C-alpha cells in the first residue's frame, strides 16, 4: 500500500 | 522533487496565469466556465487546509498560496468584476452531479478516515472531474478562443506530467499514492480528445472547433 509519506505534492 | 513534477507545477501555474491574463486583458470571461473555476477554487481550498500546519518547503507553501489566491481571484472576476461577460447560458453543467458523488466517494475510499484526509481525498477526486463543465461548455458553443485552448493544454499537461512523476517516484523512491494516481489518470484521459484537437488544429494555426 501507499508508504505513509507527508503530503509533499501540490 | 523531480523534473517531471516541477515542469508539471510550472505548467499548472502557467495555465492559471494564462486564464487570469486573458480575462484581465480582454476584460471578458467569454467562453470560460465559471463552474469549473469555482470547482478549482474548491479543490485548492479543501486540499491546502494544512497550509500552515504541514510545512514542506518554501516552494510548496508559496505555490499553495498562489493557487488559492489566483483561483479565488478568477472566480471573483467571472462572477463579480466581469459578470456582464459571463456566458451563463452555455455554462449549464450540473456541478451537483459531480460534487455529491465525489463527496460520497471520498468518504468511502480514502487512506485515513479523518477530516483532513477526507477533504484531501475529496479534493483529489474533484480535481479529476472539475474540467468537465468547461469541456461541456466548449462542446455547446462548438468552439474555444485560442488563448482558452492554450490554457486547457497547459492545465491538461500538468496532470499528465504528474503521472510521469508518479512513475518516477514509484521506481526511484518506492512511493506511490493509488488515490492520486487513479484520479490523475481519469483527469488526464478526460483531456485526450481536447489534446487531439489542440495538436491537430490549434498548432496548425486553426481555431479550435469541436464537432457540435
Give a description of the structure.
The complex is a heterodimer of chains A (10) and B (212). Chain A has no helix or strand. The model of chain A has no long low-confidence stretch (mean pLDDT 73). By secondary structure, chain A is largely without helices or strands. Chain B has 212 residues and is mainly α. Chain B is 71% helix and 2% strand. A two-stranded antiparallel sheet of chain B has the order 1-2. The longest helix of chain B has 28 residues, at 146-173. Chain B is globular and about 45 Å long. Chain B starts with a helix and ends with a strand. In chain B, 35% of the residues are buried. The mean pLDDT of chain B is 97. The A-B interface holds A 1-3, 5-10 and B 5, 9, 12, 50, 54, 56-57, 60, 63-64, 67, 111, 120, 162, 165, 174-180. Chain B: This is ER lumen protein-retaining receptor. Chain B: One of its GO terms (biological process) is protein transport. Chain B: It is a multi-pass membrane protein.
Characterize this entry briefly.
Chain B: It is found in: Endoplasmic reticulum membrane. Chain B: One of its GO terms (molecular function) is ER retention sequence binding. Chain A has about 10 residues and is mostly loops.
Amino acid at each position: 500500500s501507499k508508504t505513509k509519506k507527508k503530503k509533499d505534492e501540490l | 522533487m523531480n523534473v517531471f513534477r516541477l515542469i508539471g507545477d510550472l505548467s499548472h501555474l502557467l495555465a492559471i496565469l494564462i486564464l487570469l491574463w486573458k480575462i484581465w486583458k480582454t476584460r471578458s470571461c467569454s467562453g470560460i466556465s465559471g463552474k469549473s473555476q469555482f470547482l478549482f477554487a474548491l479543490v485548492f481550498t479543501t486540499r491546502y487546509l494544512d497550509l500552515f500546519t504541514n510545512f514542506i518547503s518554501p516552494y510548496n507553501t508559496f505555490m499553495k498560496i498562489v493557487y488559492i489566491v489566483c483561483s479565488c481571484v478568477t472566480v471573483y472576476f467571472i462572477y463579480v468584476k466581469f459578470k456582464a461577460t459571463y456566458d451563463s447560458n452555455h455554462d449549464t453543467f450540473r456541478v451537483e452531479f459531480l460534487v455529491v458523488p465525489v463527496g460520497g466517494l471520498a468518504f468511502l475510499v480514502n487512506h485515513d478516515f479523518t477530516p483532513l484526509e477526507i477533504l484531501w481525498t475529496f479534493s483529489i477526486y474533484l480535481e479529476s472531474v472539475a474540467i468537465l463543465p468547461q469541456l461541456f461548455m466548449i462542446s455547446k458553443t462548438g468552439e474555444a478562443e485560442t488563448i482558452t485552448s492554450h490554457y486547457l493544454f497547459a492545465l491538461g499537461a500538468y496532470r499528465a506530467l504528474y503521472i510521469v512523476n508518479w512513475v518516477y517516484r514509484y521506481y526511484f523512491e518506492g512511493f506511490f499514492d493509488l488515490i492520486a494516481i487513479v484520479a490523475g489518470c481519469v483527469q488526464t484521459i478526460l483531456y485526450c480528445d481536447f489534446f487531439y484537437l489542440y495538436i491537430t488544429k490549434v498548432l496548425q494555426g486553426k481555431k479550435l472547433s469541436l464537432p457540435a
